[in-house]
Design brief:
The protein has 159 residues and is α/β, with parallel strands linked by helices. The chain is built from seven helices and five strands; from the N terminus they run βαβαααβαβααβ. It has a single domain, classed as Rossmann fold. Helix 5 runs parallel beside helix 7. The protein is globular, with a radius of gyration of 16 Å.
Length: 159
Amino acid sequence: MSIDTILLGMDGSPASLRAATWAASRAAELEAEVVVVHALDPDTQFWRDITPDTMTNWRSQLKRDLENEWCAPLRDAGVKFRTELIEGEPRAVLVRAAEDLDADLIVLGLHSGRAFADRLLGSVVSKVSHRATRPVVVVPPEWCGDGGPAEAPGEGGAP
């Protein structure tokens, strides 16, 4: 099985940035394209309080952040990538996007320190890994590209 397309779930968190670094390394090794997907969930309270003009500006800024900041590990590695902002609940968006794009692999970062919320609501990683019809790689909070321990701001590390 060749890996030509890697779907990367991205939310701008330290966990997703670690996943981007991992995906960038694999994509460079495999000469694969990375499709970076960010889900915009319309059911959140935030969306109910925003005007159409504000939404347009916010979406534009989010797209810039996604392409310019969040995808920096991919750009730095020189891999081919593109971004997608897709409306919907993140778990469903990622599974559907992987199918629609015929992705060979899904890559997600695992957040640390959110065990209670994850048990209560179910984590995106858990739901995607149970519903996806293709392999899912979960990059743990402890992973660091240089082989040493990872200590992202606000996750783990010293108190």
